[in-house]
Description:
Two copies of one chain form a homodimer.
Chain A lengths: L11 H9 L4 H9 L5 H8 L3 H13 L3 E7 L4 E6 L1 H5 L1 H14 L8 E5 L8 E5 L11 E5 L1
Antiparallel strand pairs in A: 1-2
Chain B binds a DNA duplex through α3 and α4.
Amino acid sequence: MRRTRFDDWPCPIARTTDLIGDWWTxxxxxxAFLGRKRFDEFIDALxxxxxxxxxxxxxxxTEGLLRKVTYEERPPRFEYKLTEKGxxxxxxxxxxxxxxxxxxxxxxxxxxxxxxxDTGKEVVPAVVDENTGQRIDVRRLRVRPR
Amino acid sequence: MRRTRFDDWPCPIARTTDLIGDWWTxxxxxxAFLGRKRFDEFIDALxxxxxxxxxxxxxxxTEGLLRKVTYEERPPRFEYKLTEKGxxxxxxxxxxxxxxxxxxxxxxxxxxxxxxxDTGKEVVPAVVDENTGQRIDVRRLRVRPR
DNA sequence: CTGAGTAAGTTCAACAAACGAACTCACTCG
DNA sequence: CGAGTGAGTTCGTTTGTTGAACTTACTCAG
Lengths: 146, 146
């Protein structure tokens, strides 16, 4: 009995869930955004079992979020670099960041924040409707066939 | 050897991952947003194994995203309703929707879209910096202690 | 030329979680 | 009294996770 797959469901949430719906993949992506590139860098940063990391990196490469690049021929050594698709995934992590910061801490704020390297100002992710620039009112949302 | 937990890591992404980092929880939440409330409605909509649904609903209730409400005393019958925390979670699903729609379909668009019930116009989720209203430039982001 | 070191994995045994079918429980309704 | 219903629980099987040990393909210091 294999784990149920959602990668052919006709819903964008289902297909995204199929990819990141496990404990490690979002954190592997987080580390990639923090500049981690090599196998043992991910191991040291996350404490993820080696076999699981192998599996997740392979999946992210075949799905096109990471690219495996040889940076040394002999002995063979590799780096995992974010692709355009992988970079675009930051939006999902940012939304998770925002919700987690708002709701998964008690009264205090989390001990870390996001800042803009150039302006030094805090960056606070928010999800809006691209057409109006306003936050989305869930109660008014409907799903329709295209 | 229990599944590794992230619910006490000092990072909002890790804590959010601990909650939704499995293949069913985001879809259970999706169905809740589509108006599903009863146990067998979730079963019918998702095809999720009953024992797994029991586990996920319990988790979402203890985490405060759903509230279990008795709607009939005898025989005892229940509904699962979104709390404020659960409603706020829509942002994460919206970001997943956007990324999935942009990157997990080939050239076509997904067969469904989000619309505003009142205006009828399509709603296109986007993640921005709340302070600037602009999309976030990943390359300029840094993580800092608060 | 040997032995230590390193990056990037693979292998393995123990355990946990997911799967799907069948079963239970507390009722109501015809 | 028997069928039906909503909300689960139980169970045997299969799949996935964990962590430790091992492997491979080299380089470099002595």
